[in-house]
Amino acid sequence: MSVNIHYKTVGSALKKGVFANPFSLGKYAVSPYMACEHGCIYCDGRAERYFVAGNFSKDIVVRKNLPDIVNRAFRAKGIPVGVLAMPLLPGITDTMDHMDRLYQALSDSGAAFDIPAGLTLRPGRQKDLFFKTLGAHFPQLVELYEYIFRENRRSGSPHARYIDELREKLGLFLEQVILDRKVFDSITLSLD
Ligand code: SF4
To answer: How far, in Å, from the CA of 76 to the mean position of ligand 1?
Structure first.
């Protein structure tokens, strides 16, 4: 099936939040398109709250003039390059072995920082599709995911105990997770 691109012109590029988003450490968000051709099965963008219509990986709405607006807004600013390693998938990419290799690779490639996060599964089509795919490819993990996401939280968050465990695990990689403390501080200090 071919991809249908729908173009849209927007008046502004940056969406400003009242508070810094703890996920991205920024007050500003840029969203160049709605839906996504990559079609990742865990994508939070599949959830009903984002009002994406049509086939998620085939009907793409592109905010056509956004690059111009962003370029104007960011011109002359030095922007450190890092990684958002997310979502870390329970039993698949949240293992010590995987994280060890991930942070070694980031360190080797000179990434300035990483902001990691776990998986969220919002009840509804996102969670349903994820579980269907998980069952097809990792049937041995279905029980684990059912347990972790048993509360069906509207936010899609896993159980608090899993979050604590993930945090603890990430803590072991802290020096590598935030690879450059100075850059991290400059990001967090520039949130106002
Ligand atoms: S998670 Fe995957 S499908 Fe979702 S926006 Fe990112 S690349 Fe696209």
So the answer is: 29
